Every structure is written in structure tokens, then in C-alpha cells.
UniProtKB/TrEMBL annotation:
<dbReference type="Pfam" id="PF13473">
    <property type="entry name" value="Cupredoxin_1"/>
</dbReference>
<protein>
    <submittedName>
        <fullName>Cupredoxin domain-containing protein</fullName>
    </submittedName>
</protein>
<keyword id="KW-0812">Transmembrane</keyword>
<feature type="transmembrane region" description="Helical">
    <location>
        <begin position="14"/>
        <end position="34"/>
    </location>
</feature>
<dbReference type="InterPro" id="IPR008972">
    <property type="entry name" value="Cupredoxin"/>
</dbReference>
<dbReference type="InterPro" id="IPR028096">
    <property type="entry name" value="EfeO_Cupredoxin"/>
</dbReference>
<keyword id="KW-0472">Membrane</keyword>
<keyword id="KW-1133">Transmembrane helix</keyword>
<feature type="domain" description="EfeO-type cupredoxin-like">
    <location>
        <begin position="41"/>
        <end position="117"/>
    </location>
</feature>
Length: 132
């Protein structure tokens, strides 16, 4: 009797374990999909902070493309070691850069396209802003 019930119990336990594993796997997949969706959904408006510093005509982090969804808020913080003017092309936003003083510029990216953010005196390209 015990010989017939023991395997059944074991099988039930196995089903239970399988069910738990499937649930966990489903949870992990759902979490990955959610996170992946967040990361790849470039069309969703967001708040994007971009910090760039300029020293000895070197831009850091190195010039890259920042992709945001239309309607996103862009917060620029630029620190330069020399006086200059910051210019966001397309949106035509400008800020005065004073040596060693972080300048901030915030605007809503509501026009799609590829826009260069640069300095005028030194003609340095800081960031390429891609609004989709
Ligand atoms: Cu310009």
C-alpha cells in the first residue's frame, strides 16, 4: 500500500516543483520583457540628464548619440574650463559657459530629428541628440 502511495506523493511533489519552477520562469521572463521594453522603447518621453565636461578641448564622456522619445525633457549640465557658449542646434537653445561653473539648460525635445549640441568658440561637438 505504502509502495503505491509513495510514488504518487513523489509525483505530486514533482508536479508541485515543476509548477513552482514554471511560475518562477514566467516571472523572470515577464520581468525581462518589462525591463527590455523599458530599455528599448526609445519613443516614450522621459527625463534625460546629460552631463558633459570640457577640459583642454577634450570632451568627456566622449561624444555620443543620445536617443530620446519626442516630448522628453533634456537636462544638460555642461562644465567647461574656458569661457564659451553652449548651443543646442535645432532647438536653438544657448547658455553661457563660465570657466569651471556648471551651466544647466533644460528644454523639452518636441521636434524629431538629429541635433548637435556644441560649443561655439571652440567648435566642439558635445552630444548628438536624436529625438524620435
Ligand atoms: Cu551652433
Amino acid at each position: 500500500m505504502s509502495a503505491t502511495t509513495a510514488p504518487r506523493r513523489t509525483r505530486d511533489d514533482l508536479y508541485r516543483i515543476v509548477a513552482v519552477v514554471v511560475l518562477i520562469a514566467a516571472g523572470v521572463v515577464a520581468a525581462l520583457m518589462f525591463r527590455g521594453g523599458d530599455g528599448t522603447d526609445a519613443a516614450a518621453p522621459t527625463v534625460r540628464e546629460i552631463s558633459v565636461s570640457i577640459a583642454n578641448r577634450k570632451v568627456s564622456p566622449p561624444v555620443g548619440r543620445v536617443e530620446v522619445g519626442r516630448g522628453s525633457t533634456i537636462r544638460l549640465t555642461i562644465t567647461s574650463d574656458v569661457p564659451d557658449e553652449l548651443h543646442v542646434h535645432g532647438y536653438d537653445r544657448r547658455a553661457t559657459l563660465k570657466p569651471g561653473e556648471p551651466a544647466t539648460l533644460e528644454f523639452r525635445a518636441d521636434t524629431t530629428g538629429l541635433f548637435e549640441i556644441e560649443t561655439h568658440s571652440d567648435h566642439l561637438l558635445l552630444v548628438q541628440l536624436l529625438v524620435r
